[in-house]
Amino acid sequence: MSQTPYRQVPCPQCGTLSEWRPENKWRPFCCERCKLIDLGSWADESYKVPVQEPDQGSIDSPDQNG
């Protein structure tokens, strides 16, 4: 019985290819260091999810249904 080949994915932090498999406890990162760097970027708010502010006119006007 042959061993199942695992997919290689680039680490989101450094780009090093690593296998996507259960034994890789840092996936999708290649190592703990890259995972912690990414976590730190979220913690210091270097990454932000874009938010679209609602139109002020729609907030101030009453709902037409009630």
Structural write-up:
The protein has 66 residues and is of the alpha+beta class. It is built from 2 helices and 2 strands, in the order ββαα. It has helices at 32-43, 56-60, and strands spanning 8-10, 17-19. The chain has a two-stranded antiparallel ribbon.
Oligomeric composition of the shown chains:
single chain
In the sheet with the most strands, the strands line up as 1-2
Number of strands: 2
Estimated helix fraction: 25-40%
Overall geometric form: elongated
Largest sheet, strands/sense/barrel: 2 strands, antiparallel
- Which stretches are poorly predicted, pLDDT < 50 over at least 5 residues? none
Structural class: alpha+beta
Q: Determine the mean pLDDT.
A: 84
What percentage of amino acids are in beta strands? 5-15%
Tally the helices: 2
Please trace the helix and strand order, writing H or E for each element.
EEHH
Calculate the terminal CA-CA distance, rounded to whole Å.
67 Å
User: What's the alpha carbon Rg, rounded to whole Å?
Assistant: 22 Å
